[in-house]
Amino acid sequence: MLTYSSKWRGQLDQLRAIKYFSKVVETGSFTKAANAFKVPPSSLSRRVSDLEKSLGATLLKRSTRIVKLTEVGQVYYDDMQQVLDQLEQSRETVRSYQTTPMGRLRISSMVGFGEKILLPLLDEFGELYPEIVLDVSLSDELSALGRDDVDIAIRGGYAPNERVLAIRLMDNGFIPVASPSYLEMHGVPSHVMELKEHKGLYFKAPNGPTPWLCYVDDQWHDVSGPAVAISNNGPWLAKKACDGEGILMSTRWALSSYLESGALQEIKFEHPLAITQHADMAVYLLYQKQRYLVPKVKAAVDFLVGRIKVGNER
User: Fold this and answer.
1) Using CA atoms, how far apart are residues 313 and 151, in angstroms rounded to an integer?
2) Nearest one of 274, 266, 264 to 224, comparing CA atoms
3) pLDDT tens for residues 72-115?
4) Three-class secondary structure of residue 275 per DSSP
């Protein structure tokens, strides 16, 4: 009969074998994996072989030159990565609870918001918390916090369905703008349907150019005009709008400096105008609930929510 201590030792041995196996996959070599753990290659290889025996499956194809995953090995590796990530996360939570915010903080943000609002704030945040290493990725591709290696994500759109906490930072509604010179030459459209006759500057999202939609007579209509430029670079499109090349649809926060300087003017209509049929467009800060216990994440969430929401309310 197994005692509690021997059973516990067996579980620890299995966990060690799983870590060895994962490192072999990552390095592609038993020798490199053994060096990483500072154990003899023969010992590490024996542990992995014992793991395969306990599972009754061959996880790795071995040759003199290379080590590759079998099909079932790939499935097992993917499952174990989630387990190891969760263990590491729990370990970090316990270790860093009630300590000074430190370590790498992984933040993902949509490009325009990141360049215009987030990065300047992170410069200030970095001065407040010098022991935090900021790892920032700007992309308009969606990040799933449970799958991707991200602590905090900032996304525009509507509240996500994934199991994360979503804090609304600001409105993310889109407005049509044009330069005074363009409006003087082509006229100010008085009805939203007249946009079809105007030149358009279109932002390209991951799924393609964003159309202009309007809500008239209880239904949405595509009122996009002929395109003169399409890009995922907001500043370039704004410059072309300032140069009088067409009408641009973008967020108010992205256009604020152009509107304040008079370089661009908002075109107002009676009917709602948007790039999506979802009514509640906003910018959200997303994070997993358990990560908030980690000081570096808590510090960043509190700082960003405080600075962005307060600044947006002024």
Assistant:
1) 26
2) 274
3) 999 999 999 888 888 887 777 666 556 778 889 999 998 889 99
4) coil
* CA–CA distance, 198 with 159 (Å, rounded to integer): 33
Judged by DSSP in three states, 64 sits in: coil
| DSSP count for the chain of H helices, then E strands | 10, 16
SS3 state at 208: strand
104 burial type by CB count under 10 A (0-12 exposed, 13-18 middle, 19+ buried)? exposed
Summarised one tens digit per residue, pLDDT across range 155-203 is 887 666 666 788 989 888 788 999 999 999 999 998 889 999 999 999 8
How much of the chain is in helix, strand and coil states, percent to nearest 5? 45, 25, 30
Task: Specify the 3-state DSSP secondary structure of 165.
Answer: strand
Tokens of 105: 């903080």
In order of 59, 144, 148, 214, the CA distances from 269 in angstroms are 63, 36, 41, 10
SS3 state at 266: strand
- Residue 108 to residues 162, 183, 266, Cα–Cα distance (Å): 16, 37, 30
Strand partners, 68: 61
Give the count of beta carbons closer than 10 Å to the beta carbon of residue 15. Answer: 14
Nearest-CA neighbor of 157 among 253, 276, 270?
A: 276
Question: Per the structure block, which two tokens stand in for 233?
Answer: 């670079």
Q: Which amino acid belongs to residue 301?
A: V
> CA-to-CA distance for 164 and 59, rounded, in angstroms?
33
